Amino acid sequence: MAEKKNDALSPLPEEGSCDCEMIHEDAVARARDAQVSEEEIGRLAALLKLFGDPTRLRLLQALRPGELCVCDLAALLGLTKSAVSHQLKLLRMADLVRYRREGQVLWYSLADEHVSALLDLGFEHINE
Questions:
Q1: In this predicted structure, what is the pLDDT of residue 3?
Q2: d(CA 23, CA 28)
Q3: Are the CB atoms for 12 and 6 separated by under 8 Å?
Q4: Distance CA 70, CA 88 (A)
Q5: Cα(9)–Cα(29) distance, integer angstroms
Q6: Whole-angstrom distance, CA of residue 112 vs CA of residue 94
Q7: CA 20 to 30 Å from 60, out of 2, 85, 91, 103?
Q8: Is the four-CA dihedral 80, 86, 87, 92 of positive or negative sign?
Q9: What does each of the 128 residues of the chain score in pLDDT, given as a tens digit?
Q10: In 3-69, which residue ranges form alpha helices assigned H by DSSP?
Q11: What angle do CA 50, 77, 128 make, to 5 degrees?
């Protein structure tokens, strides 16, 4: 690989790094004013972590058209009912899914339109 010629005889900056030592006070102040609390950052990180598991994403995607029970989800995704129940519990604790009981059957659905919107944004982003 050919090395880039550096006429200034100073080291080239690493790709993606800044080659100056100037702090842009206005930009820093704007960014500081837009910060949210550490608690909110932690809560959002925990929420996004749940979206980091392919099985949970498949469950959420499966629930987009409407309610399904654990047996339906297990059959659809080729998983055990135990595995589906475990993942649904995590999603329920994060308010991403909800359920309603009808006799012995628990019908699961997305908690609200925000969950569907998060999936839409994620898919839109990766398909750009």
A1: 47
A2: 8
A3: yes
A4: 9
A5: 34
A6: 12
A7: 103
A8: positive
A9: 444 444 555 566 577 787 788 899 999 999 999 999 999 999 999 999 999 999 999 999 999 999 999 999 999 999 999 999 999 999 999 999 999 999 999 999 999 999 999 999 999 999 99
A10: 25-33, 38-50, 54-63
A11: 60
The tokens for 59 are: 């469950």
- Specify whether the CB–CB gap between 108 and 63 falls below 8 A: yes
Which residue shows structure tokens 């080239």? 12
Domains delineated in the chain? 53-126 (1.10.10.10)
Q: What residue type is 56 in one-letter code?
A: R
Q: How far, in Å, CA of 80 to CA of 121, rounded? A: 29
Helix (H, G, I), strand (E, B) or coil at 87: helix
Q: How far apart are CA 10 and CA 13, in angstroms?
A: 9
What's the rounded Cα separation, in Å, for the pair 50 and 47? 5
Ranges of beta strands (E only) in the chain are 68-69, 97-102, 105-110
